[in-house]
Amino acid sequence: MNKLLASTCLLLGTIAGSSFASAADCGNVTIASMNWQSAEVISNLDKIILNEGYGCNAEITIGDTVPTITSMAEKGEPDIAPEAWIDLLPDVVKKGTEEGRIITVGSPLPDGGVQGWWIPKYFADAHPDIKTIPDLLKHPDLFPAPEDPSKGAIYNGPQGWGGTVVTAQLYKAFEAEKAGWTLIDTGSAAGLDGSIAKAYERQQPWAGYYWAPTALLGKYEMVQLEAGVPYDAAEWKRCNTVADCPDPKPSAWPVDTIVTLVAKPFSEKAGPEVMDYLKKRSWSNATINKLMAWMTDNQASGEDGAKHFLEENPDIWKEWVSPEAAAKVEAAL
Fold this sequence. Notes:
Blueprint: H1 2-26, E1 28-33, H2 37-54, E2 57-62, H3 65-75, E3 80-85, H4 90-98, E4 102-104, E5 114-120, H5 121-126, H6 133-137, E6 152-156, H7 162-173, E7 181-185, H8 189-201, E8 208-212, H9 215-219, E9 222-224, H10 233-240, E10 258-263, H11 264-269, H12 272-280, H13 285-297, H14 302-312, H15 314-317, H16 323-332
Parallel strand pairs: 1-2, 6-7
Antiparallel strand pairs: 3-10, 4-10, 5-8, 5-9
Helix pairs in contact: 2-14, 2-16, 3-4, 13-14
């Protein structure tokens, strides 16, 4: 009997010690929050789940794509970049990975960063024959320009955006002007958003440049048009992204790769449960679009958005964590 009690106590002590060691190993964690909405909410989500679910001492540090990824690749700091758009710095990421300072752990947005030409879903539903850019360009009469209804309107972003340059180049490449279209400069981000909101609220046609994930697409459901041709990396680099290049070629937009980067030293001390969470933690563009729309409508912070998501979507986030961690996170909400 005494031997049984001793064995039981030893087992319980081992389990408790293991849990304590896991929390202790996680320790202090720095999480980079980039300066856009989806990155702000996911960094706060990681902070809440790591602190409440896994006993970490996580803090958020404000960063941006280039300085954060460069610092991680060169110094192994901060510990986590939850939403890293690595196509902007492929050589830096490659070097940091090869030198053992960073590792890639899954993707928070497996749909990727998406740019292109879009039309409202209600219009796509009413015109199922319009699925590609060439399909669109056959129907300028369905998208009358406000100042010249005899032409179709394609709405572009403001000057200075990379997407604005590409849209203007694709407009040339697909010979849209010859097909009876005009390219409209919306002047600002607010002008572009306003043109979509106005069309949507009046259930009018609209076609033009936008991207995802974004709060606007969480509020106004849009359908991206396929290019009708494959992505041509060589032409994209040679001409489609160069404003004064005279002969762009039709091409699909590339999808930006978005991953979670983790500093190698942290990955080695964090423990398998924490790393498993970071690997599994992901959501669709549609999910984050809707969350950002709620945040915008409610003037909510990244922390507010994270708590709202946890309260409203347990069916999603509980798949990312252990049952024990899920119970602790729920108790903290």
